[in-house]
Amino acid sequence: MNRNIFQTQVFILLLLSLSYIFCTGQVKTETYFENETKNKRLKIPKPQGLNKDAGLGFGIQDKEGNIWFGSYGEGVFKYDGKFFTQYTMNEGLNSNIAYSMVEGKAGNVWVGTNKGLNRFDGKKFENISIVLNNTNSLFPSFFNNSAPAENKVWSMMVDSKGIIWLGTDDGVYCFNETIFTRFLDNQNLLNRDSLQLKGIFSIIEAKDGKIWFAACQSEGVSAFDGKTLSNIIPYKDVGRTDRILEDKNGILWFACVFKGMGRYDGKTYTKNVFNEKAINGPSNIIEDTKGNIWFDTQEGLSYYDGSTLKTFKESDSFPNRKLIPVFLDKAGHLWLSSKGMGLYKYIDGKFISYSE
Q1: How confident is the prediction along the chain (356 residues), in pLDDT tens digits per residue?
Q2: Is the overall model pTM greater than 0.85, yes or no?
Q3: Residues 23 and 143 in one domain
Q4: Does residue 53 share a domain with residue 34?
Q5: Do residue 194 and residue 234 come from a single domain?
Q6: Does 235 share its domain with 349?
Q7: From CA 172, how far away is CA 204, in angstroms rounded?
Q8: One domain, residues 228 and 84
């Protein structure tokens, strides 16, 4: 009798345990599914934060074809061709203000914010501290072996060798996705003009292998040829420069925010190519598959076909005269943004809205 009672009690406890494990698993699955569903939308939502003028500033396309957009206040968005999935501090970002993004050679998506560097693991973001390896330095620092805890990552670029370059408030870093080094600590580097490379807003690798840097202030535009780092265009000629573009002909274009569009042919720098009004200039530049150079101006969205400048007007069924080109996808479609999280794709002469 007692034995039967004991067996019954054990059986009940086993059922309760299994029920608890099953229900716990269900709750976790449902919570994750609900979070994923909540973050997915057919279009980009309007700003939810305090900054109602928040917008999308840049984009990349990963190896799987997903398009990622970074925003100034609303985190980042992944577009899979149907849904936009939003990632914010709730998904591990250290800030919702994103400045830069690349996909590394290993397939990780890296995001730079006003608080530092983040890595996406397929589901969520993780903050990655910049801890230095000083073995390549002529004078290793034993007391300053890491970047500041909050270090704005303004720009990123993956070079032809798979090295990620980061332009930060604290200087330029090189990262092979395992080890960080400070670029200027390289003992083989000849820094002819004693440049500091702080606050670099744009980094590119040109077709000839040179690395170009555009500084926010003081140092203008500089280039590294593999051995020597030199100032090429002084700050007084370019001012704050948000973007560098190399076109299909090897010409460099500079988005000089307060000094118009700049152009460098390898020998001569031309200031304010399109005669922008005083203290105005573009914030971004994109080249399309036809070789047209797209950029934003005070008068509106424009493109240059090599001989003629075209500026969109209201009569062109233009949705917003303040559109900024942010990305050209692998299909050759141009994506543009506007304040208030506006997003448009330009295809077959039409602007298609992707924002709520």
Answers
A1: 444 444 444 444 444 443 433 344 433 333 434 555 678 999 999 999 888 999 999 999 999 999 999 999 999 999 999 999 999 999 999 999 999 999 999 999 999 999 999 999 888 899 999 998 765 554 554 445 778 878 999 999 999 999 999 999 999 999 999 999 999 999 999 999 999 999 999 999 999 999 999 999 899 999 999 999 999 999 999 999 999 999 999 999 999 999 999 999 999 999 999 999 888 999 999 999 999 999 999 889 999 999 999 999 877 788 888 999 999 999 999 999 999 999 999 999 999 999 99
A2: yes
A3: no
A4: no
A5: yes
A6: yes
A7: 13
A8: yes
37 and 56 share one domain:
no
Judge if 198 and 311 occupy the same domain.
yes
Q: Same domain for 262 and 188?
A: yes
Total domain count, the chain: 2
Residue 296 maps to which CATH number?
2.130.10.10
**Domain range enclosing 7:** 1-41
